[in-house]
Amino acid sequence: MARSLARLVKGFQSITALPAVAAPACASLRSASLRTMAVPLPFSSKPRDFSLPNVSWGPEMLRLYEFYNNLCERETEGAEKRRGPWQRLPSYNRSLKYATGGVYLSKIIQSKARLFTRNMRNPGAAFEYVLFVNKEEQRCVCILQAGHLLEGPPGHVHGGAIATMIDTVTGTHASQLCEPVMTANLNINYRSPIPLGSTVLIESTLDRKEGKKTYISCKVTSTDGSKLHTEATALFVSISISHLLLGG
Amino acid sequence: MARSLARLVKGFQSITALPAVAAPACASLRSASLRTMAVPLPFSSKPRDFSLPNVSWGPEMLRLYEFYNNLCERETEGAEKRRGPWQRLPSYNRSLKYATGGVYLSKIIQSKARLFTRNMRNPGAAFEYVLFVNKEEQRCVCILQAGHLLEGPPGHVHGGAIATMIDTVTGTHASQLCEPVMTANLNINYRSPIPLGSTVLIESTLDRKEGKKTYISCKVTSTDGSKLHTEATALFVSISISHLLLGG
Predict the structure, then answer these.
(1) How does pLDDT run across B47-89, given as a tens digit for each residue?
(2) What pTM does this model have?
(3) Looking at the structure, do residues A224 and A113 belong to the same domain, yes or no?
(4) From CA A46, how far away is CA A104, in angstroms rounded?
(5) How close is the nearest chain B Cα to the Cα of A168, in Å?
(6) Both A71 and A26 in a single domain?
(7) Residue B131 falls within a domain, yes or no?
(8) Quick check: ipTM above 0.85?
(9) Which residue range is the domain that position B164 belongs to?
(10) Cβ A15–B116 below 8 Å, yes or no?
């Protein structure tokens, strides 16, 4: 099974890489209806991008999205718009869909499988998030709105849901630097619980790269940065796609 | 909001404790239809127990469930059945439901909220698991069947889903020793990816207790123990319920 998968994806440049959205796309986003942006195109070979705003996004989530989205481009002296320091990363409901032809392949390879963080049809019920990367500063920022299906202790987000987002953000960051990667270690310190429904910031920074190893730090804070919810370090190891598909 | 929650649950003995199922309940389980056991009773004040077998459970999941369930009782010389060294722990879709009157309270306090590991209606789609605890040996065992909605890398379980189960198993174990607790640290080493659809064992053992701190080790292996998927340590801190409800 795994070997046939390996044959199927042979020739793919990368499965885990998240292609960045260029500045012109960021610009068109702001002039379009938010509702329209989140609707998948019928019969399209382009997968639905879950990182675009939908009706469940609250004011804080939208405000931060607009803030970072504005940093995706900068105006030059001639009022010409050019690529900015930040880039929004699209988000699909299977990692397979990042690969060329992945939309079609995902219909024949374990077609029911869904990315753990994008497995809900109901907007706002679980993870609503968008990632922005700044390659110059080696930083990544995620805006997360935690839905009611992520409960752990009464009224608060499950420690595993926080770990899931930390793995997602740091893993995406690492794959931007040296794709593809697998998580080797997560070391998470929980400082203060996150109430359900909150919008929080998850920021990751590159610590160092040593050969195939990428070390990343991460913290989860309130959106104004005044409250530290969680701190973590993560280690990722570069792998080949065949290694992944054959089960490591 | 949090303060009114605190008033509502004032007088609860524990919210995070998972009451163990006594041996007679284990005995009746085996004589009943597996399908019948997982169906919630209409108009019942008893919450549905998600740790009972359902139609999605595969042969390996059922085999291991039966194995540990048989250890929930032992026969004496007079063929009398008595409580065994292991106990099956019930599992509800909100931690609030472990408290006395929690079923009713969960209808008025954030009624849409669901435990992260039990937030799916479709059996077998995400986490199917059951926990058994051995208080004499200070051990806890969880049998997990990983559904198709837990995908991370193509065809494999998301690192965050594994972290979620490690947090759940070690946290349940810690709450059996000193309730209630909050996760303070999780340190997870990912050794080998877990294919989607697999049944695996998650075993936790008590390392030590130091005042309010409980240190636990955990490993995730194939069901025959031959393959190590993940290793972790966890630290839990005992807290008061008001501390939890007021946001720590």
Answers:
(1) 999 999 999 999 999 999 999 999 998 777 777 778 889 999 9
(2) 0.83
(3) yes
(4) 10
(5) 8
(6) no
(7) yes
(8) no
(9) 59-246
(10) no
